[in-house]
Amino acid sequence: MTKTDNIMYLIVVGAGRIGSRVIELATQDGHEVVVIEKNTDLAELTGSKYDCLIINDDASKMDVLEEAGITKADALITTTNDDSTNLMMMMLGRRYGVPRLLSSVREPDHISLFDELDIDFVESPHRLNGEYLYRTVQRPGIKDFMRLDGGAEIVEIELSEESSLIGLTILEALESEKIADDLIIVAVYRDGELIIPRGNTTFEAGDTVTVLSKEGIGKDIIQTFKTR
């Protein structure tokens, strides 16, 4: 498969409940996926179900990561049941310069350890599933999301300093068509405070904006909130 701007090279460590959902979605979308799974039975099952490369080995071994193509990976996603293994994988991913690092965390008390590594997205399995991890890889900048019936989505996006929305009111953003009419600003969190959005509410850098889109959140919407 030839790599294009739309095709990602993903390494998924762990093919359990969360990992298998990531693998399913990523292979359906045509991405290049390498799965590292230590359990032989699970590795064989995954290989029989999905169009991906399976490495039945311990992902913490440097030669295994290199065999998986860590140096060209767009993202490393680790979903094992062991936080120490996940943490090690994130450390190795940082060492190899992988652009996107994502991990599940079994114990909420361990999240601070991952935060110290400046991992892009770390969430407790109590709040996420494989789809959350996969969508996070696809759409950097989204802090949280919920899929609704009919394809609608609610997402939280942090407004960057480079966003073209900075300094505009919600009404001005609508009138200038910087945000679409069918996009609803549900809430704005600023400095830990909840702001109920009105037409005269002004966007500021660092705001966490909760957005509802009936058609789902595409890259164009994310770019509006992230860059000019």
Low-confidence stretches: 1-5
What's the CATH class label of the largest domain?
A: Alpha Beta
- β-sheet strand percentage: 15-25%
Which architecture of the largest domain does the CATH hierarchy give at level 2?
A: 3-Layer(aba) Sandwich
CATH topology (fold) name of the largest domain: Rossmann fold
Helix count from the secondary structure assignment: 8
Helix content: 25-40%
Strand order of the largest sheet: 3-2-1-4-5-6
Class inferred from helices and paired strands: alpha/beta
Q: What's the story with the biggest beta sheet?
A: 6 strands, parallel
The figure for the number of domains is: 2
Query: CATH-wise, what's the superfamily of the largest domain?
Result: NAD(P)-binding Rossmann-like Domain
Cα shape? elongated
Query: Taking all residues together, what is the mean pLDDT?
Result: 84
Radius of gyration: 19 Å
String of helices and strands: EHEHEHEHEHEHEEHEEEH
